[in-house]
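Can anyone check this?
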Amino acid sequence: MLPLLAVLAAALPCPARGTIRAVVPPELGLKAEEIETALAREGVICPSGSAIVLAVYFYTESIEEMAYSGEGVTSSQRPGRIKVLMKFRTGNRLKKVYFLEAAGNEKREILDNLAREARRALR
């Protein structure tokens, strides 16, 4: 009987926490679930009765640049970046708005850095 209760408790929404949702335009090549997973890994928690919405408006993975000169080909890499508008609501009232930016050399690093920025902003 106890395992069944544990399964049911895990399946039901937790009233002690608010909601966190990411919104990503499809043309950016990023999934909202990837951002939400990074936030969970970093321990970003929304207080009860509140909601956090992260709207991504810019995303690019790292860019490798190659240049040819008389001395040969040189290669360099610029880090990828993400820019997000994060809205924090309590009930129906907008409490705060943050513009967050993060960078990294690969997708996971970019998203983990974004999650750290979100956690810092919410302190």
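Reply from J.R.: I decoded it. The first helix runs from residue 2 to 11.
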